């Protein structure tokens, strides 16, 4: 069972990651600084970081620091350029192939904790006050769908695709002032996915995710 001290620090760490902008590499502040920011001990922080790392929310590089997101696949050379990895169209086609299938599997296999995580991500995404917060919760939402499949190979596939997506798409990150409008399309689309997965409806889950990815893709292409 997770110690209360570590769990409390983990909750504070989650809130910090959702509400604060990190640098372009997604690197977290040093441990000593994080302790001061969160008001926790070094031991509690390390437990929180261990929890976050085990869930794929952060990864650590010895000598370089702690970074937001999943550890990049080491088989993909970091020297490859965005153009060598994929084009936006290729990312879109891959997402339309993979993510609806993940949603279908999630509807069959999601645990109670998975469903709670999906609801939390959808709610926090709607409450985001700026685009960086929204994108963090959006990224977490889509990984939660993958994790809800209870299939480590599918999660690995998603993480590899998501790493490339973040390079290709986030590299063109919007610079709009403010945050998502109240009628942002993803809010209702995320909620439709959550509802379908919660209802254990594989076909509707797949359909809801396909509609969502298709809408995101069309808006991305129209903005370029």
Automatic annotation (TrEMBL):
**Which intervals hold domain HTH gntR-type?**
3-71
What molecular functions are annotated in GO for this chain? DNA binding; DNA-binding transcription factor activity
PROSITE patterns documented for this protein: HTH_GNTR
Pfam families per the record? Answer: FCD, GntR
Quick one: signal sequence residues?
none
Organism superkingdom = Bacteria
Keyword terms, alphabetized: DNA-binding, Transcription, Transcription regulation
Q: What is this protein called?
A: FadR family transcriptional regulator
């Amino acid at each position: 069972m997770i110690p209360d001290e570590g769990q409390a620090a983990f909750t504070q760490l989650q809130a910090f990651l959702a509400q604060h902008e990190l640098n372009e590499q997604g690197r977290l502040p040093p441990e000593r600084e994080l302790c001061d920011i969160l008001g926790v001990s070094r031991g509690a922080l390390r437990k929180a970081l261990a929890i976050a790392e085990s869930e794929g929310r952060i990864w650590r590089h010895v000598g370089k620091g702690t970074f937001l997101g999943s550890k990049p696949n080491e088989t993909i050379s970091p020297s490859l350029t965005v153009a060598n990895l994929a084009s936006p169209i290729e990312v879109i086609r891959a997402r339309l192939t993979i993510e609806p299938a993940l949603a279908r599997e999630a509807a069959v296999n999601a645990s109670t904790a998975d469903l709670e995580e999906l609801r939390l991500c959808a709610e926090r995404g709607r409450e985001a006050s700026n685009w960086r917060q929204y994108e963090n919760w959006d990224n977490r939402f889509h990984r939660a769908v993958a994790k809800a499949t209870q299939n480590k190979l599918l999660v690995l596939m998603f993480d590899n695709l998501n790493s490339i997506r973040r390079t290709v798409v986030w590299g063109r990150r919007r610079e709009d002032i403010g945050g998502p409008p109240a009628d942002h399309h993803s809010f209702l689309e995320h909620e439709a996915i959550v509802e379908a997965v919660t209802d254990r409806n594989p076909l509707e889950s797949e359909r809801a995710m396909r509609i969502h990815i298709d809408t995101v893709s069309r808006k991305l292409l129209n903005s370029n």
